[in-house]
Write a structure and sequence with these properties.
With about 400 residues, this protein is mostly helical. It contains 14 helices and no strands.
């Protein structure tokens, strides 16, 4: 029996397909985050600096930025099921190229493919997931989709760091390619055929961006994600050089970061329901303040450990709060708005990782933490004085 079926018309939720989408998110975000936990061995093996190795994150984000902007228009006539599967194939090939890289150029080429897969998948994932369940179940389906991000945050950094010491960083990327193969199989088995819901064009992105309040909101998104990735991309290097932590201790700290991030995501969902504006302001303000505390008191194992875990918990609120803002503000253009949102995040990651690499090579880990704090405090200020919050629509029973 052919597992492929047409998009359901009876309104029955396709939870298996939602799970397959979540597996895709998990595999992509895991691959995206792996360099942060393996930066030192990658740099040592390829004979480059940590700052240069960190540009693997920059390349992924830059091409993710381009793909998220262009993919809906470029593939406006393509079956969305096929597109999701193509992105999973690119994920597999990317991880294999990185695993067998003998120099920085093949490493970067593999990460370019990941960027295309990541940007394309994320740009379409919200709109695709919304079509897999009835309208009243969309919030639940999207929360399941976002759980793939939280799970990857828990898994990628600590497990990647730990396994890197056992099987080497190349072995870790081989395992990441296996994750991609599992998600590809799940998508082949469960995703229905889905023709595009509309005819997205590049000018639609501009029209969405020019709506009142959207541009300043995207600037705040750029600052908060950029500030985080100035810090997160070079976290392992910071813990090794400033705190003198062993690899085992770093793996435990990163596990604490991921678990705290998961609980922070849950907490932020409730906070956003009570006051979205407060959540959007409080999250970057707390992270920026924490960064300055780390600059002042970093180097102490206890304060560094507590600060990193708290950072993970607070950052859990960032994607939740801003996804809620997007859903309220641009609900009528789900795919185009999703592409614009993802493009902004990927640009922020690219700029954050790029800036962080320059700062790290010049001023070490303390410099990256300080630069991160400045960007985060600017984001909080932007939200306070510039971002509009629309009233929430009535929640379904």
């Amino acid at each position: 029996m052919n597992p492929v079926m047409n998009e359901k018309a009876d309104g029955a939720p396709a939870w298996g397909a939602v799970t397959a989408m979540t597996l895709g998110v998990f595999g992509l975000v895991t691959a995206e985050f792996l360099p942060a936990s393996l930066l030192t061995p990658i740099a040592a093996d390829l004979g480059i600096s940590e700052g240069a190795a960190g540009q693997a994150v920059t390349m992924t984000a830059m091409f993710g930025f381009a793909a998220s902007l262009l993919i809906s228009a470029a593939a406006r006539g393509a079956d969305r099921r096929n597109m999701m599967m193509i992105f999973s194939v690119l994920l597999i090939v990317s991880n294999l190229m990185v695993a067998f890289a003998q120099g920085v150029y093949m490493l970067l080429a593999g990460r370019v493919l990941l960027g295309v897969a990541l940007g394309g998948f994320w740009a379409m994932s919200t709109a695709v997931t919304m079509r897999l369940v009835p309208p009243g179940l969309v919030p639940r389906a999207l929360s399941i989709l976002m759980s793939g991000v939280s799970a990857a945050t828990v898994f990628a950094a600590p497990v990647g760091s730990y396994l890197g010491e056992i099987i080497g960083w190349r072995g870790v990327f081989l395992l990441a390619s296996l994750l991609g193969a599992i998600s590809l199989f799940a998508q082949w088995r469960s995703l229905p055929s889905m023709r595009p819901a509309g005819m997205a064009r590049l000018r639609t992105l501009g029209e969405v961006l020019l709506r009142p309040g959207i541009g300043i909101g995207m600037m705040a998104v750029l600052l908060v994600f950029g500030g985080h990735f100035v810090f997160f991309t070079y976290l392992r290097a910071y813990l090794e050089t400033r705190g003198g932590f062993s690899i085992e201790a770093i793996a435990i700290i990163l596990l604490g970061f991921g678990i705290a991030n998961f609980f922070g995501t849950v907490l932020a969902g409730r906070m956003a329901q009570l006051s979205l504006r407060l959540t959007l302001v409080l999250v970057p303000l707390s992270m920026g303040t924490l960064a300055m505390v780390m600059v002042a008191f970093g180097g102490n194992p206890v304060s560094d450990t507590v600060s990193v875990v708290l950072w993970g918990m607070i950052f859990g609120g960032v994607p939740v709060a801003w996804s809620s803002w997007i859903a309220r503000t641009v609900s009528d253009e789900a795919e185009s708005a999703g592409g614009l949102f993802v493009a902004t995040i990927q640009l922020a990651i690219a700029l954050g990782a790029g800036l962080g690499g320059i700062v790290f090579d010049a001023a070490g880990g303390t410099g990256t933490v300080f630069a991160s704090g400045v960007l985060l405090l600017l984001s909080a200020t932007t939200v306070m004085f510039g971002v509009r919050i629309r009233a929430s629509a009535a929640a379904p029973a």
